[in-house]
Design goal:
The protein is mainly alpha-helical and 209 residues long. Helix content is 63%, strand content 2%. A hairpin with a 6-residue loop joins strand 1 (11-12) and strand 2 (19-20).
């Protein structure tokens, strides 16, 4: 099985240090860092500036457009904080930042996938499967524009659930989720790879039987 999951939750926007859900390989800056310490300092600075910027945007949005728009910025501030904390190596703080989004809004698929990935990285596949499954129940609202990552509402949780259940030893369920992922992206290299793996496992089982 292969895992399809971006390095970071976000991708930098050209005109500022705000990071939206767009995948896959996020970088705080394209400029080379002289050391790990310097890179961590830059990440910390980016986090502080972005949280302030997002908080100000949320306040302005609440005044001009109402609570629903403000919530987008408030939840995204938590997600950006989680990304920075993870890059700094603060795993528990990253999880807590993601969970804090639920104080502002109902679960969104993007957040559920990130929490699932948190557990996946720790090889806690049953917990990861719970969050990826929850992501599939979230309604997608394209009115949220750049805050929406379409893959998180179908393909991504399905392909991740395929991996989770394979690691848990339930190959039948894993294959089912691989085919659900295929219904979202028929030409996915991950889907093709997984089909080949399942075919090999089936042939192997027949030979043993």
């Amino acid at each position: 099985m292969i895992l399809i999951q971006g390095k970071g939750v976000s991708k930098g926007v050209t005109n500022g240090p705000i990071y939206f859900f767009q995948r896959p390989d996020a970088k705080i800056s394209d400029a080379p860092a002289a050391s790990i310490v310097e890179e961590k300092a830059r990440i910390g600075e980016a986090q502080e500036k972005s949280i302030i910027q997002l908080t100000n945007l949320a306040k302005k949005a609440r005044e001009e457009a109402g609570d629903e728009t403000a919530i987008l910025f408030e939840t995204h501030a938590c997600c950006h904080c989680a990304y920075c904390q993870r890059e700094l190596g603060h795993e528990q703080a990253a999880l807590e930042a993601l969970l804090r989004t639920f104080a502002y809004d109902w679960p969104r698929a993007e957040v559920c996938c990130e929490i699932g990935h948190w557990f996946f990285r720790k090889e806690r596949f049953r917990q990861a499967a719970y969050w990826y499954t929850l992501a599939l129940t979230c309604a997608r609202d394209d009115r949220r524009g750049g805050f929406v990552s379409p893959d998180c509402y179908g393909y991504l949780p399905c392909i991740q659930l395929c991996v989770c259940y394979s690691r848990l030893g339930d190959q039948k369920k894993a294959e089912t989720f691989n085919e659900l992922a295929a219904s979202c992206k028929p030409d996915s290299p991950a889907v093709r790879h997984n089909r080949a793996v399942f075919q090999a496992l089936s042939e192997q089982a027949m030979q043993v039987g």
